[in-house]
């Protein structure tokens, strides 16, 4: 029997229930994995509390890693005993699960299961921002709204390594040091001098904003981007970004957005995950810690994400 974490109703973290379920043998194109680590993502909290609708009952989670236990008919390139991970396949909060073989990324020897569960979805989202939604160039000045968050902290460090000048914005004052460690300049979103300080770095405005916050920093991000610049809207942790469409058009600002599953697909996942693993090896994210939780302590993990208490990447240890 597998342990699973399922919700039967939307609500507070207490709706997360640890249950058991039988896992069948894999069918055509499927693989059975014994999971070792499960990534917790902001989106999971939205599915739990009902900000995003999903069919109930539902096993949450879309990211995990583990060892292949069995492969179904037609699966040729994945073998029993291999370590694998995935980043966009619902039903991850489980000790064992079935998954489509095409969703899996084989893990190199030097990337642990825990690292994969902590970094894969968030790191590939950062890759989407830097390589698919925008193609970052050395010398560009970028503002990262939500640089203290999981994806933002990865993207800031990666953008710096790719030669950009990075201005990071934190929503919590206690996380300014984390932002400072991965950016050239760090500000708090409510700093009344933030725009003046940004203009001191980029007098005409920044070339690109990578936005993970949405509503809470909308005024600052719109004012910070230069005319003819770009807003890459990846997330909206504080609620949807409302842009003034007329003003955006008048100033020639391009607004782009997208989902990681659309941009990191069968055509790009090899390249994207290869670049992410190399960046991890190169130590770009060496100061980013994992916040570890026991599998059954999932409610606490969700409460910590929702309360913005975390400074590490949340992982459930199975
Ligand atoms: N498009 C995609 O495919 C994709 C993929 C992954 C994630 N996302 C989205 O990206 C967003 C960030 O994800 P994440 O995993 O990085 O989440 P996270 O770790 O919880 O980070 C959220 C960030 O937003 C900041 N923030 C929240 N409310 C704020 C407010 N009112 N004012 C200023 N800053 C505020 C937080 O600041 P503090 O922590 O400093 O308080 C933190 O920097 C989420 O909306 C998520 O759904 C989208």
Automatic annotation (TrEMBL):
Question: Sorted alphabetically, which keywords does the UniProt record give?
Answer: NADP, Oxidoreductase
- Cytoplasm as a keyword of this entry, yes or no, is no
Q: Which residues form the Enoyl reductase (ER) domain?
A: 11-316
GO MF terms on file? mRNA 3'-UTR AU-rich region binding; NADPH binding; quinone reductase (NADPH) activity
Q: Which InterPro entries match?
A: ADH-like_C (IPR013149), ADH-like_N (IPR013154), ER (IPR020843), GroES-like_sf (IPR011032), NAD(P)-bd_dom_sf (IPR036291)
Give its E.C. classification number: 1.6.5.5
Q: Name one GO cellular component term.
A: cytosol
Q: PANTHER family from the xrefs? A: QUINONE OXIDOREDUCTASE PIG3-RELATED, QUINONE OXIDOREDUCTASE-RELATED
- The entry's protein name is NADPH2:quinone reductase
Q: Which organism is it from?
A: Streptomyces fulvorobeus
Name of the gene: qor_3
């Amino acid at each position: 029997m597998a342990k699973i974490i399922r919700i039967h109703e939307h609500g507070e973290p207490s709706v997360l229930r640890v249950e058991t379920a039988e896992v069948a043998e894999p069918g055509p194109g499927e693989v059975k994995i014994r999971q070792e680590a499960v990534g917790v993502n902001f989106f999971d909290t939205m599915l739990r509390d009902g900000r995003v609708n999903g069919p109930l009952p539902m096993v949450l989670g879309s990211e995990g890693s583990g060892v292949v236990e069995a492969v179904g008919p037609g699966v040729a390139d994945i073998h029993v005993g291999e370590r694998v991970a995935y980043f966009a396949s619902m039903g991850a909060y489980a000790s064992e699960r079935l998954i489509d073989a095409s969703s899996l990324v084989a893990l190199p020897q030097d990337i642990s299961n825990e690292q994969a569960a902590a970094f894969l979805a968030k790191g590939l989202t950062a890759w989407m921002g830097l390589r698919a939604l925008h193609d970052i160039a050395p010398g560009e000045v970028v503002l990262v709204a939500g640089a203290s968050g999981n994806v933002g902290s990865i993207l800031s460090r990666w953008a710096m390594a790719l030669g950009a000048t990075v201005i990071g914005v934190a929503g919590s004052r206690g996380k300014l040091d984390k932002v400072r460690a991965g950016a050239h300049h760090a500000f708090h979103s409510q700093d009344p001098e933030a725009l003046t300080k940004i203009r001191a770095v980029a007098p005409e405005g920044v070339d690109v904003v990578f936005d993970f916050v949405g509503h809470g920093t909308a005024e600052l991000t719109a004012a910070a981007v230069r005319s003819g610049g770009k807003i890459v809207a990846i997330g909206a942790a504080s609620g949807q970004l409302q842009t003034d469409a007329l003003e955006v058009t008048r100033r020639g600002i391009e607004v782009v957005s997208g989902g990681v599953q659309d941009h990191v697909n069968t055509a790009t996942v090899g390249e994207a995950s290869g670049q992410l693993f190399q960046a991890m090896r190169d130590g770009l994210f060496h100061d980013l810690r994992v916040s570890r939780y026991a599998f059954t302590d999932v409610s606490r993990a969700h409460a910590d994400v929702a309360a913005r208490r975390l400074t590490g990447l949340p992982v459930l240890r199975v």
